[in-house]
Request: fold
Amino acid sequence: MSDEQSRFGRPHPDLTESQAAEALRKEAQLSDAGWQRECERSKELGLHAAPSIGDRSISTFARGELPHFAGINTFLKAPYVEDVHQAGAYDVAVFGIPLDTGTTYRPGTRFGPQGIRKISALYGTYYFEMGVDLREQMKLCDLGDVFVIPANIEKAFDQISRAVSHVFAGGAFPVMLGGDHSIGYPCVRGIAPHVNGNIGIIHIDRHVDTQEKDMDERMHTTPWFHATNIPNAPPKNLVQFGIGGWQVPRAGVAVSRERGTTIMTITDIMEMGLDKALDIAMEVAGDGTEAVYLSFDIDSVDAGFVPGTGWPEPGGLLPREALHIVQRVARETNLCAMEVVEVSPPYDVSEVTALLATRVVVDVLATLVDAGKLPRRRPAWLNSDPAQEPWAL
Reply:
């Protein structure tokens, strides 16, 4: 027997401790009960397949994950929960915030949630590198979109805060699909009353977004000025990661200097190394806080990889770096919610921008599962007393 034959069915000796080998071991321990339930539900709702079909897990009408090119898309083909009062029955609730009223240059991010959902159908629920299957290890739903008011950004903000507050207070981990970056302020405003303690903000972007106003209004360049006016979201715990280039308004820089927020540029990250920079970012956001809010602007990634955004900027993160960042934040902080913003499908060549936005979300969720943070357990700092929050139903 040759050496090659003797190794059949076993990894190369030098790979026995590799990530791939660990992923193979983890996959063997995963249940397929969730997949079986989905197949049975598909047949129940969509009819049994024609007699000529050999695979009897297939239904007549497309339901669930397969085929990826068919069906009415939710995020990751997760169940659509029309009754939002049921959001608390899930570990994670994804919902769209299709607002681009705060855009100051190229509109189109109101179509971001649709674009992200559409391309998310490309993915299954299993992530090989971590050995995680979201369908088997947590309960995920899609709540649809917030009813924003396009002609009135302040009324839209009120709708957004109420929606986020409802989902968060119910115990589900909220994932917000933007929309432009103005939504950061009302999203934090919806969460803050439910946290018994301070909230840190990790803002991954090329732009500081800390002006008080832009064109005399609160816009997508202003969310963090107003979010850090919230008493338990202090400026000292705001970290802005990846900043740089020629689209960083001096008015925002002045606010960051005056309020003592932390700005880390791409050059800082390159010179000190990504992991060292992340160590600092998480230390600042976590200093004296109970929870951390993650805001990921897709334009933080180099414009060559994400053409579908309102303010493209060369010189940003690589996609691999971006995914490493969000995985570490999910694993090593008390993450309470996340948003992905500024995906603009009208400019998105081959849907690559929306595809990366999807990866940011699913990588965070997989990491939370792998770290034992999902299924969600009620955090000690979560306060869901309706009397304590101004957006009570």
